[in-house]
Amino acid sequence: MSFSSDEVNFLVYRYLQESGFAHSAYTFGIESHISQSNINGALVPPAALLNIIQKGLQYTEAEISIGEDGSERVIESLSLIDAVMPDVVESRKQQAAAKNHPIKNEPSNTNGDDGALTLSKARISNLANHTEPMEIDGALEIPSSKTTVLRGHESEVFICAWNPTNDLLASGSGDSTARIWNMNDNSNSANQLVLRHCIQRGGTEVPSNKDVTSLDWNCDGTLLATGSYDGFARIWSTEGRLVSTLGQHKGPIFALKWNKKGNYILSAGVDKTTIIWDASSGHCTQQFAFHSAPALDVDWQSNNSFASCSTDQCIHVCRLGADKPTKTFQGHTNEVNAIKWDPQGTLLASCSDDMTLKIWSMKQDTCVHDLQAHNKEIYTIKWSPTGPGTNNPNAPLILASASFDSTVRLWDVERGVCIHTLTSHQEPVYSVAFSPDGHYLASGSFDKCVHIWNVQTGALVNSYRGSGGIFEVCWNHRGDKVGASASDGSVFVLDLRK
């Protein structure tokens, strides 16, 4: 048996990423030179570090519980810290030998199983319960005939987004590429366009070897913007041509968004700043340095004002041309992961590692609602495309929250109450997305499942189990296809047409 420090470092890096410690993962990745290793991340399954630790713990327990004659002694479960302390392990061995009577290997009592393994099997079963996949109801499962799996990425695919006017699906990956997949029914063109993210080195272009962290289409679907860990934002045509490179951030870009008008792009970076870019020239129009720690997310309120959030626990509302925030919201007690304005731009929702969801208004300094129901970090939030100012004005406005507690919650924001808790996922939920009519919600989790829910009733309507943990789900503009991207490098499309 042999393993290298590169392999250990990679598993630690993946553990940090999967646990939501994005910034710790970034720092650790830089210091341990993860990008220079030759490990294919797409082949490494989720929770790999925890699984190998779990097996080591089981082996140590077996050493203590199984006597020299092959019989098994009853012992108390061993904690992970105890298992790495030789003195404790030796002491437990001696206690087990002195105090416990062996369990004999009586075939008549074990229905043919080896009695010495009975306790170990039970222990393994208990330890592995949380990773056992839940059976999907056959009546709800989306058949393979309605599923298209898109292969090409060579590492995790963190994000995907449909073009707002046709069935082009963009995806961004840890392999330092974005891809545009043509899923139009009448398409005769190439299935995928590869958008390679390169940097200048020694007068030549070389792959950046950095994750593509964010992407967003402009409102008419003619341009795609991407943000990368290499610190550059880029604008691409639908044919895959690099239109411009936006360089001003000093470090990774965590989020970027087009405004509705399509003349500005907004980005958030680890360098604690947010930047408004002129989309036509590619120049930095204004850089905002109000946060005291990395900026994690941004969202436009109007064509020239926006909100930003950070690991500094603060939310700033800023306006183009102003040299200080027009509003600052404080109240979260841990890093703020995501922010979203409602369709009218009057209420701002935020979610945090402090396990709360807060609703803010420009009319007051304190939050309108402090929604506490999740019992782990809330990773992301989405407003329904309903209510005043939307294409569905008579439907109620709903907010969805996705958490590492494996649940999705739907909130009536006007009353400040949770109306549905969606509980079919078994692992952290990384993404939620409403259908364009607001009737359905898609959710994606690290349990490899995409679920489709009825928003009004909270009922599970459809399910699909992919081959990797789900990072992102999104609906096409007609609301009849759902795209998803996964940790094993796959992208897939679910056709929901009857």
Query: Helix coverage percent of residues?
Result: 10-25%
| Sheet with the most strands: spatial strand order | 1-34-33-32
| Helix/strand structural class | alpha+beta
**Main sheet: strands, sense, barrel:** 4 strands, antiparallel
Q: Give a count of the beta strands, DSSP E runs of length 2 or more.
A: 34
* Gyration radius over CA: 25 Å
- Rounded to the nearest angstrom, the distance between the terminal CA atoms is 52 Å
Strand portion, in percent? 35-45%
The pLDDT mean sits at 87
Weakly predicted, low-confidence segments:
99-131
- What shape does the CA trace take? globular
| Helix segment tally | 7
Tell me what you see in this structure.
It contains seven helices and 34 strands. It has 498 residues and is an alpha+beta fold. Strands 1-34-33-32 form a four-stranded antiparallel sheet, with no helix packed on it. The chain has a four-stranded antiparallel sheet with strand order 2-3-4-5, with no helix packed on it. It has a four-stranded antiparallel sheet with strand order 8-9-10-11, with no helix packed on it. A hairpin with a 5-residue loop joins strand 14 and strand 15. The longest helix has 18 residues.
